[in-house]
Design a protein that fits this description.
Strand content: 15-25%
Structural class: alpha+beta
Distance between the termini: 85 Å
Number of helices: 31
Number of strands: 30
Strand order of the largest sheet: 15-16-21-22
Length: 709
């Protein structure tokens, strides 16, 4: 009987002279059953889910074995009753021919509308009756599969493997021709099975991040930028994790700074600007003209001339008389540990304070100040490994900015949370450790807060506290308050300096024994600064006046506003674009201005801003000793030229300039991360041709985080 059924086609079933109504046929069968058989058929055989034998045994006051025997006899009776030649038997044979090995239940119902009809007496659709009646197939989640969904999925996998290419691609048209399913139905089935279909190619190997990326690149047929690849993959992973995976797998090659392809394509591999310079120098016999170097690299890769020039004058390379060569001695660090913000000395241990972020907890590496690299003896182009109780901790300087490896294991051990402070401790003999502290409560005594922020123990002894604060910035224990405060201000530790001002202000009130008003307090504080040998230039009204960074914001926006005649309207109120909460606008910094700023930081020199062949401004480098640079915590002033005059666009910090160039290169908004690894702002990206980009002649706007309060 089975051989006969399997040899028939759907067309063979239609012409049979059986009753044309399978529902009536099954209803007639039900009418011949006694009450107990009908109940067992309905609850055990057709139940969703089937009732247990023990439950039915209790209902009928019989044993479970007796229930099972009745069930077996019912199945035998069904098989004898609905043989080939009956309406139901013919319909079953037709379904067997159509399910090879999978078919959408909706399509079967379209071909056989009776399948959707409910059967009186059991109140279930006919398709469920046939599913339970025939062991040849099962229906699950909208699919009819032979013999079951698991087996159909395995047959699909085997079929696709036969067609798969080196990277697991299967042409959708070829797969469709090898099955009896319509293309749309096959697509739905493949999606249900977890396969990815891209560019009419079925990606059969997507379980691992590596395989998924290789399949997607093969389906695309051309290199993709990292963010594009990340977006197309749609996986719950970071771009940084994806980059690490691609870089460690021989199947992939970097074809540009942020672009990846397959090694099998045999395209020219891009390593890094630094390594490209090394290759150019080797080919040129040890030295090469800067213009020739820039032209050679920028013609082959999507990198800016300013970036090439920045690397050529940094680390292991130097520029002398417009000629690039390898540096004979290591370059001096840009900052000593004692001048590095948030890096504090405690005897022979230095502690770097960072605020723990989600990226730290997730295991990402992060930038560290160059002072840390100097502290551990890491020069540009090298990696230093430190010993710790939890294994090796790396500090690497393989880019323009030093970076630390992941600290996740230390944070996990300390059960750290986002928002807490962590102190990275650099100890003698290459040892490393990490401690975690709660953020300082705002209402805490200012002196206690200052000690907490430098990682020192709290003390009620004012002199001991002053000594700890002095040694933390590498000053003698007996340093005067003027020197201590100036050191914190010069390093950029304004939060600690502000707390110390509060301490000394209160001391002045205590000395005078007077209750002062806000106005007299300010004047008394200025007098106390003089008597305590402190600088009188300290801005006591800093919090009451506009922030120094904000003084030029409006002029930047109005300067860049475009009039109807295409000129610049310095008073246009239309220049305002809303700023996200928690940020303040620094200005619409153009990508080529940011590139010049990066170069100015690397060369410690003024760098012209080129827009094509035209010089449109300058990135003016201002030494750290400058009061203005100290106040703004920035060393580069961007100016734009107008005829014979210049107008300040903004002051920009090095990490901000890098972020602007990154946003422009990746064509997306990016967060600005400071040298200490903390979030410091945002670069908004606007599509070229948009209203904002056209109005301000820039696709990037730089925002700084606004301090709380």
């Amino acid at each position: 009987m089975a051989l006969r059924l399997n040899s028939l086609t759907a067309a063979d079933m239609v012409s049979n002279g059986a009753s044309p109504d399978p529902v009536l046929e099954f209803t007639a069968f039900l009418s011949e059953l006694d009450e107990r058989q009908l109940q067992i058929l309905r609850d055990r055989f057709l139940g969703r889910p089937p009732r247990k034998l023990a439950e039915l045994a209790v209902d009928f006051d019989i044993s479970r074995e007796r229930v099972r025997q009745i069930e077996v006899r019912l199945k035998e009776l069904l098989a004898r009753t609905f043989h080939f030649g009956t309406s139901i038997g013919n319909l079953l044979a037709s379904l067997r021919a159509e399910i090879q090995p999978i078919a959408a239940l909706d399509r079967l119902i379209t071909l056989h509308p009776d399948l959707a009809r409910d059967v009186p007496g059991v109140e279930v659709p006919l398709w469920l009756v046939l599913d339970r009646l025939d062991d040849y197939f099962e229906v699950s989640d909208g699919w009819a599969a032979a013999p079951d969904v698991g087996a159909a999925r395995e047959q699909t996998r085997i079929l696709l493997e036969d067609f798969a290419t080196e990277h697991g691609l299967v042409d959708l048209a070829a797969a469709t021709s090898a099955t009896a399913m319509p293309k749309a139905e096959l697509l739905a089935w493949l999606t249900w099975c977890g396969y990815v279909v891209y560019n009419d190619q079925i990606l059969t190997r997507t379980r691992s991040l590596n395989d998924h990326a290789a399949s997607l690149l093969a389906a695309t047929g051309e290199p993709l930028q990292t963010d594009e690849l990340h977006q197309e993959m749609g996986r719950d992973t970071t771009i940084r994790s994806l980059t690490n995976v691609l870089g460690s797998d021989d199947r992939f090659v970097r074809t540009d700074r942020a672009t990846w392809g397959l090694a099998s394509w045999e395209v020219e591999e891009y390593t890094s600007i630094r390594q490209q310079i090394g290759l150019e120098l080797a080919a040129a016999g040890g030295q090469i003209e800067l213009s020739r170097l820039v032209e050679s690299i920028t013609n082959r890769f999507d990198v800016s001339p300013s970036s090439v020039q920045a690397y050529a004058g940094n680390g292991e390379y130097e520029i002398i008389g417009r000629v690039v060569r390898r540096r004979e001695s290591p370059a001096a660090p840009r900052k000593a540990p004692s001048a590095t913000r948030r890096l504090f000395r405690h005897g022979d241990v230095w502690k770097l304070r960072i605020a723990i972020t989600r990226d730290h907890l997730r295991g990402s590496g992060f930038p560290v100040p160059s002072g840390v690299a100097s502290l551990v003896g890491c020069v540009q182009g090298e990696v230093v490994e430190l010993d710790s109780d939890l294994g090796t901790q790396s500090i690497r300087w393989t880019g323009l900015q030093p970076a630390s490896g992941t600290i996740k294991r230390f944070l996990d051990q300390s059960q750290a949370r986002e928002g807490q402070n962590a102190f990275l401790e650099f100890k003698p003999y290459g040892r490393f450790s990490l401690t975690v502290r709660e953020p300082v409560a705002p209402g805490t005594d200012p002196l206690t807060q200052a000690l907490e922020l430098v990682g020192a123990a709290d003390t009620r002894d004012v002199e001991a506290a002053k000594a700890a604060l002095a040694t933390a910035v590498d000053l003698p224990e007996d340093a005067k308050p003027r020197r201590i405060l100036a050191a914190y201000r010069q390093r950029g530790d304004d939060d600690i300096a502000a707390l110390l001002e509060q301490v000394w202000t209160r001391q002045r009130d205590n000395w005078t024994g007077q209750q002062t008003t806000a106005e007299s307090r300010s004047e008394a504080f200025k007098l106390s600064m003089v008597e305590a040998d402190l600088p009188t230039s300290v801005d006591l009204e800093r919090d009451a006046a506009p922030h120094a960074d904000d003084l030029h914001v409006n002029s930047v926006n109005t300067e860049d506003a475009v009039r109807g005649d295409g000129g610049l309207d310095e008073d246009s109120s239309a220049a305002w674009v809303p700023v996200p909460a928690g940020y303040r606008s620094v200005g619409w910094v153009r990508p080529h201005e940011a590139e010049a700023a990066v170069l100015a930081y690397q060369l410690h020199a003024d760098v012209p801003v080129h827009d094509g062949d035209e010089i449109t401004g300058w990135a003016r480098y201002v030494d750290e000793a400058s009061t203005r640079a100290l106040d703004l915590n920035a060393n580069v002033k961007l100016v734009r030229t107008r005829g014979q005059s210049e107008r300040i666009a903004c002051w920009i910090r090095e990490h901000e300039a890098f972020s602007v160039t990154q946003a422009s290169a990746e064509r997306r908004s990016v967060a600005v991360t400071g040298p200490d690894g903390e979030a410091a702002g945002l670069v908004e990206y606007y599509q070229p041709g948009s209203e904002e980009a056209t109005r301000f002649l820039s696709s990037t706007r730089l925002l700084r985080g606004r301090p709380p309060g």
